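Researcher: Let's do a round of design. I'm pasting the structure tokens now; please hold your answer until I've finished.
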């Protein structure tokens, strides 16, 4: 396996205000080069647009790697402190990631006509956003990326945030636009309203008892796909909480893989601690972090102490196989 990290922007290009050296990036999980081109699977973890969760990153990429894909994990921009609205920055990050992978199709040994994005929760909203807004002028790049297509060939949405309406996950939209979002901004990112015949084929799965992102979100997008004639498949599992990732033994035991998706979080909190700035209340669970403390270790230990008692669910854990079968049929492979 070839595992490498690539920054998506130069320091000059990346203007979102961060505390630290973070720049959105892509980590690769690539097979040694063989005779055939492989489909690409770009994994986009969730986290309410406040963090990029490691529970839906490397563990998912390796699952699809084992199924024959060359996989990638995108760590995009988030808004932990709710201080600087993200607006289109995460969407620009993901759009650039798709173009980055396509531009290097030969290097990464992928079929540039088989690029899939797979998002979870708010990462699902991000993937859905690119699916419906891929052709907007704000995402067009010139220079070496001029003419490189940012439209994914297929989309996987896992318990996705979709709507800003009645069933919306409010915190995600506060991270995107702040507490005073306009009706126009909220309507633009209520994705079920923007599905067209140009929306890529979409695979959706959710649980009926999701307590954070109501299952109605996935129904809204699936119904919009049906109305517009978009190829889609929609699976709703009868029970299960939010954030199930692969729902398998590895996930339940905490074997998620690398925590590199948390870089922006670690650097932000480290900056606050080192400069004597009071941490948000959400970090009370980690106790007092004195100047010079290792924020990364404190956060990792805190997350372990307060992690829910995850149990594998074999019924839900079949979703990657369902998605893979759907993609094979879609791509004729």
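Researcher: That's everything. Go ahead.
Model: Designed sequence:
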């Amino acid at each position: 396996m070839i595992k490498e990290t690539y920054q998506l922007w130069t320091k000059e290009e990346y203007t979102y205000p961060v505390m630290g050296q973070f720049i959105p990036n892509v980590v690769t999980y690539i097979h040694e080069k063989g005779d055939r081109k492989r489909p690409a699977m770009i994994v986009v973890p969730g986290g309410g647009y406040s963090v990029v969760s490691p529970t839906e990153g490397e563990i998912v990429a390796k699952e699809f790697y084992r199924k024959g894909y060359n996989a990638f994990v995108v760590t995009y921009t988030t808004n932990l402190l709710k201080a600087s609205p993200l607006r289109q920055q995460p969407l620009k990050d993901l759009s650039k990631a798709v173009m980055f992978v396509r531009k290097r199709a030969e290097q990464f040994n992928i079929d540039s006509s088989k690029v899939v994005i797979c998002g979870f929760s708010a990462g699902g909203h991000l993937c859905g956003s690119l699916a419906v807004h891929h052709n907007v002028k704000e995402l067009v790049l010139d220079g070496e990326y001029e003419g490189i297509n940012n439209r994914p060939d297929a989309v996987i949405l896992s318990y996705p945030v979709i709507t800003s309406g009645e069933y919306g996950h409010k915190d995600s939209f506060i991270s995107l636009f702040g507490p005073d979002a306009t009706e126009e901004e909220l309507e633009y990112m209520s994705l079920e309203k923007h599905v067209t015949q140009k929306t890529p084929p979409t695979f959706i799965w959710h649980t009926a008892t999701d307590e954070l992102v109501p299952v109605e979100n996935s129904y809204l997008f699936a119904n919009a796909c049906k109305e517009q004639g978009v190829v889609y498949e929609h699976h709703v599992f009868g029970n299960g909480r939010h954030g199930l990732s692969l729902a398998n033994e590895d996930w339940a035991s905490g074997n998620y893989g690398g925590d590199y998706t948390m870089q922006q979080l670690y650097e932000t909190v480290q900056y606050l601690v080192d400069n004597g700035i009071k941490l948000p209340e959400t970090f009370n669970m980690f106790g007092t972090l004195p100047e010079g403390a290792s924020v990364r270790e404190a956060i990792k230990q805190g997350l372990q102490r307060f992690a829910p008692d995850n149990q594998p669910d074999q019924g839900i854990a079949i979703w990657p196989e369902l998605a893979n079968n759907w993609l094979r049929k879609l791509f004729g492979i």
